[in-house]
Design a protein that fits this description.
Elements lengths: L12 E7 L2 H10 L7 E7 L17 E8 L10 H16 L5 E4 L3 E4 L2 E12 L4 E11 L27 H22 L2 H10 L6 E5 L4 E9 L5 E5 L5 E4 L5 E4 L1
Parallel strand pairs: 1-2
Antiparallel strand pairs: 2-3, 3-7, 4-5, 5-6, 6-7, 8-9, 8-12, 9-10, 10-11
Helix pairs in contact: 2-3, 2-4
Length: about 260
């Protein structure tokens, strides 16, 4: 039955009960020419992937594990900002679903009470000149209890259920896809500037003291801004120098 209120997102979709990784499956479909907005969704990933070659815990029916295929015409250099866009859209969707306490930890984690609720993995294929496709993979913990998480995640992970918010997964998916589609259309027509401003509003990293673990040296500083490319601007505590922190190069945590 049609529960979707979107125009394009999820209008073409593949539901698989169990798969290695929806990002992997979405890439395969994208290579075959599947249209923009195609969604791949599963109950369980047996090899869910996270950033920095980490895994992503994706137990059966306990979350929303899905990927969306995008074919934007903006230049490839903008592609990483899709992750910021997704984070903003998800915060809006979560508010609509009754979870009002979520914030964005730079660059792309959605946190509640210091614990991670969501992971986003954006992958691009194309050339220096043009994007062929982007696969935006999103994992949201919905009904897991803390005891369901592997031991090493029990102190750092959370879910809607753990935060005391009951949601129907199908309804949540509809709200989320609608918010993602709206935000995506906005960046396609107006660019990323207003989305970056919204990102700042929802950020839990900005205006905080942070530790930057950069290759070669760690330092403490104050996160003062987000630049137009989505880099974090940090003023060092030791020498007052302003550093531009590029996602992927570093990990960052509250002091
Ligand atoms: C991270 O925080 O490291 C990103 C995790 C991304 C997980 C999602 S779940 C759906 C999609 N398929 C994957 O294999 N990964 C992403």
């Amino acid at each position: 039955e049609d529960i979707l209120t979107t125009e394009t997102f999820g209008r073409t979709y593949e539901y698989i009960e169990r798969t290695e990784s929806t990002n992997r499956e979405a890439r395969r479909l994208a290579e075959e020419g599947t249209p923009e907005g195609t969604v791949v969704i599963t109950e369980e990933q047996v090899a869910g992937r996270g950033r920095l070659n980490r895994g992503w815990f994706s137990p059966y029916a306990k979350g929303l594990w899905f990927s969306v295929v995008l074919r934007p015409t903006f230049p490839p250099i903008e592609a990483p900002k899709c992750t910021l866009m997704a984070a903003v859209a998800l915060i809006k969707a979560f508010r609509e679903l009754g979870l009002t306490t979520a914030g964005i930890k730079w660059p792309n984690d959605i946190m509640v009470h210091g614990r991670k609720l969501v992971g986003i993995l954006t992958e691009m294929s194309g050339s220096m000149e043009a994007i062929d496709y982007i696969v935006m993979g999103i994992g949201i913990n919905i009904s897991s209890q803390l005891k369901d998480f592997p031991e090493e995640l029990q102190s750092i992970g959370t879910s809607f259920a753990v935060e005391g918010v009951q949601v129907d997964r199908r309804h949540a998916l509809d709200v989320i896809l609608r918010c993602l589609e709206t935000q995506y259309k906005k960046v396609c027509t107006e660019g990323f500037d207003s989305t970056l401003e919204e990102w700042k509003l929802y950020s839990i990293t900005l205006n905080k003291d942070v530790t930057v673990k950069a290759p070669g040296e760690d330092y403490i500083g104050h996160a003062v801004d987000l630049d137009r490319d989505g880099n974090l601007i940090v003023e060092r505590a030791d020498n007052g120098q302003v550093e531009r922190v590029v996602a992927g190069d570093v990990s960052i945590r509250p002091v």
